[in-house]
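Q: Structure tokens for this one, please.
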Amino acid sequence: MSTPRLLCWSFATVVTISSLSSCALAPLETVGWASPKAKAGSPLQAGVRYEVRKALAAGVPFRPQEMKRYYFMMDAPRPPLMAATQVAGRRMTVRTTAYCHDEDDHIVYGVKNALGTPLKFGSVRSAAADWSRYPVGTRFRIAGQPDVVYEVDDYGSALVGTGTIDLYKPTQCQMNDWGVRHVDIEVIQWGSYQRSMDIMRDRTKWPHVRRMVEDIETKVYQVTAKSLRGPMTASL
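A: Here is the predicted structure, written as tokens:
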């Protein structure tokens, strides 16, 4: 073989080995090698089949027949795990009570809620609940009060483990007037379990806070375990 042809053949071999020795991710239009239209650094897309080419170590002889190809497909993005089971518009009957900022078990916190912001009483009103059932930020309306929105921004030790919602009233007279009522509510926006966890993370020395955190962690585990039982679309 002449020297020019030998050099040309050697260069082509090096180029081929270099292209196959890199670990690349590229969308496939059909089963086979990656589409030449794929651009390096482009984000992976759901529903597209990708190929992974195994890298060759330096000095390993190139044997095309021994090359392995691995394929996988991306799932469509899912909603955040903490909100995966929550559906706005849910209607339910709940037990409600009322509390006031100057009653004995709240006087130490004054007019502040669990977020450290002022308790609200207007078109939007504060409510306290078990955050593992009604995470912080949950908003709802009570039947018969169309112009009032209640927002869960507080919690209380007596509420943990119950479905009771405590409604804030600015005076003890209004608190006593409300008493205990079973009302129909419509959840117009679910809050965030993640935000609830972030707020309570440094407060777990209190038993009722620790229980809410543990209950949220249990919910997350159950949702995760359920999702893992579904079919897997990626295989290596």
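A few notes: The longest strand covers residues 91-99. Residues 6-38, 231-236 have pLDDT under 50 and may be disordered.
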